[in-house]
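Q: Convert this sequence to structure tokens.
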Amino acid sequence: MAFEDGKKLKIFTGNANPELAKEICDYLGLPLGEAFVGRFNNGEVQIMIDESVRGKDVFIVQPTSYPVNDNLMELMVMADALKRASARHITAVVPYYGYARQDRKTRGREPITAKLIANLLETAGITRLVTIDLHAGQIQGFFDVPVDHLFGASIIAKYINEKKMEDLIVVSPDLGGVTRARDLADRIGAPIAIIEKKRPEPGVAKVMNLIGDVKGKNCIIIDDIVDTAGSLVEGAKALEEFGAKSVTAAVTHAVLTDPAAERIANSNIKELIVTNTIPLRTELPNITQLSVAPLLGEAIMRIFHEVSVSNLFDK
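A:
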């Protein structure tokens, strides 16, 4: 999908997800920007931009996923290099925004790291952020530059609609995810249910109640992140106990740290639907990965041409 003025737009990538960056470039009909992203002998990040970016609109595709600190430093050092090379605009395309779960103080003497990252990115020279399914929507307000917050529900809904499943119900894994669940439900024409749970400690969730009727239904649990999969597996188990016919999980960001793979493999989750915002670190027989490259490609093109990005999500 090539478009005019391509020479004024440049897309670069770090080492976090170069495959996604190449997919985006293929979608737009553009070559990937020429740059070296490596390390000095002492482990410090080394960036060399190997083509002129003077006066260009530059996009850096770099999710801040595992190893989060390395990928974050690559993003900031590349932004600094591009700023000093006189790029006109520098947009960070961060499909997965690391540290997003540290968005507020839950006890005394805690940092708000999501805000710190916003400050660091702006200091490095970022003039705009593009991201997908922030864990907390208020993180947009941590930035003093424009933030385009995209939603993975549009991609997931298309896949589900193509499967033509019957007796569907969308399930939010907690009270905070109701808006996300409602968005998907509206797109696939299904009702919603809500799992009410409490967290006695970080990474541990206990199901307390279910709001809605899932008996005889094909349930789709929708969430933004699957990390250790403890909450996801417990939620799926509870849905089965409440009479669900089947349980599918749809999650945008597949972090999947240990023991997630084992938990999901031994659970009643029929299929785990994820996107490629970050590379998969584990193999699962029942996992389906959807590409966000067309969504990001469209957003990049709209930003470059200064037209509405929000129209991407019109029903």
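The first strand starts at residue 9 and ends at 13.
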